[in-house]
Specification:
- With 428 residues, this protein is α/β, with parallel strands linked by helices.
- It has a domain at 174-310 and 353-426: Alpha/Beta hydrolase fold, catalytic domain (Rossmann fold), CATH 3.40.50.
- The chain has 14 helices and 10 strands.
- An 8-stranded mixed beta sheet has the order 3-4-6-5-7-8-9-10, sandwiched between helices. The protein has a two-stranded antiparallel ribbon with strand order 1-2.
- Strand 5 (205-209), helix 7 (220-228) and strand 6 form a beta-alpha-beta unit.
């Protein structure tokens, strides 16, 4: 009886402590997902303290293994950041290295806890079984199901929504000799975004949405392209990218608020004509631009390059690329991953897709895609085109790889022709 009361009291204390920790993070973080991952390691420490897990019960070997794992985790995180920064021509933000290591620790704790729960379930299922081989078989079968149908989808969705954040090593002046302003603006959900405004002393302005995992400095070629077309350029880091706040993306849906915040910034500039602002989005940024245009008429037109239509087909393609997954399991794993992503995001990402939003866009739309894009197939743009309202246009290029369309010699004439039609019809 005393043990029961003590356990009940310990559980109550743990729940109160966990609630306080979660509430504390909720005050400083806008994403429920980030609150959860930041809380997990502290919940684990609280559990060890409150439920009196004796450190003396842990062998010296286990303690050494645990310390080594943490050191290796931090080292791997540093290497990962350096490699990614080099690949993306950016620089490491050390604060992000620490946060990423902490995030990976939380993921490790969740996986460890999940494995223990699976082992407990397997133990309960075989509690009356005497055959040791059968007991082990059930245990390994349960662990196999756990890894294939829980951990794999969890990994795929978690690392799709949480990306490495790399800082800028170059800027419009260092690379293009263009003058620019470093600007900041805040979204409706209170995230501070960082961007560059590159003036062309023109009455036309373009707001650019970059791809997932990239940042604004990776798109200086795009800045140069639009500046050469005599457009003022606003390019910024989406939430969870580069120098902007946040560590969670929503695959384009909430990023519409980032674009709307950028539009708010532009409208308040005296040197920007509010009637001549267009949107240009690439890949993930294209999806965000479609969502923004569906709600915000301040975008006169949108040009979308190499974007996806919905996450159902993209999830299937992602799981297929894993390689070792039997084809019979692909759809199930993709569906589970999408459900997890929707749960973490707080909305159904299968429903609120760029394809769904495109049907609500009233502005002229130009869709561009490479026929040999292996990351996002050109058929995704055809789906978007089918969902779009008139006036609309689509152009497919014979380019290789993802978002290499701008390398095609006909890219600029296609864009200029479309813009000429748009501005002529609007009378601007």
């Amino acid at each position: 009886m005393n043990n029961y009361l003590e356990n009940k009291r310990s559980l109550l204390i743990f729940l109160c402590g966990a609630l306080i920790v979660t509430a504390g993070f909720s005050f400083i973080l806008s994403s429920g997902s980030e609150v959860f991952f930041m809380s997990v390691p502290i919940w684990a420490v609280l559990g060890i303290i409150i439920f009196r897990v004796k450190l003396t019960a842990i062998s010296k070997k286990d303690m050494i293994v645990g310390i080594v794992n943490i050191v290796v985790l931090f080292f791997v995180t540093i290497v990962m950041f350096h490699h990614f920064a080099k690949m993306m021509f950016g620089q490491v933000i050390w604060r992000e290295v620490i946060l990423a290591a902490y995030f990976l620790l939380a993921v490790g704790i969740l996986i460890t806890g999940g494995k223990k729960m699976v082992a407990l379930v397997a133990s309960l299922l075989t509690s009356k079984v005497k055959n040791e081989f059968l007991v082990k078989s059930v245990r390994w079968f349960c662990l196999g199901l756990f890894w294939i149908f829980i951990i794999l989808p969890f990994f795929l969705e978690t690392f799709a929504l949480h990306r490495l954040k790399i800082g800028d090593r170059i800027n419009p002046h260092s690379e293009l000799m263009l003058s620019y302003e470093n600007v900041n603006f805040r979204t409706k959900d209170h995230l501070l975004l960082n961007g560059w405004f590159v003036p062309a002393h023109s009455d036309k302005t373009v707001i650019i949405g970059h791809g997932a995992g990239a940042n604004k400095s990776n798109f200086l070629g795009v800045v140069d392209f639009w500046h050469s077309l005599n457009f003022n350029v606003l390019i910024f880091d989406f939430r969870g990218h580069g120098q902007s706040q946040g560590h969670t993306i929503s695959l384009g849906y909430r990023e519409r608020w980032d674009i709307e915040a950028g539009l708010d910034y532009l409208i308040n500039r005296a040197d920007v004509n509010s009637r001549k602002i267009i949107g240009y989005g690439v890949s993930f940024g294209g999806g965000a631009m479609i969502h923004a245009a569906a709600e915000d008429a301040r975008l006169q037109t949108i040009i979308i390059d190499s974007a996806y239509a919905n996450m159902n087909s993209m999830a299937l393609q992602t799981v297929e690329k894993v390689g070792f997954i039997p084809p019979v399991f692909v759809r199930t794993i993709a569906a589970i991953g999408l459900s997890m992503a929707s749960l973490e995001s707080g909305f159904d990402i299968r429903r609120y897709s760029p394809q769904w939003a495109m049907a609500q866009v009233k502005q002229p739309v130009l869709l561009l895609h490479g026929k040999n894009d292996t990351m996002i197939p050109w058929q995704e743009s055809e789906k978007l085109f089918a969902a779009a309202n008139e006036p609309k246009a689509i152009h497919l290029f014979e380019t290789q790889g993802h978002y290499t369309t701008m390398d095609d010699s006909s890219y600029r004439p296609v864009v200029e022709k479309f813009l000429g039609t748009v501005f002529k019809e609007s009378g601007n």
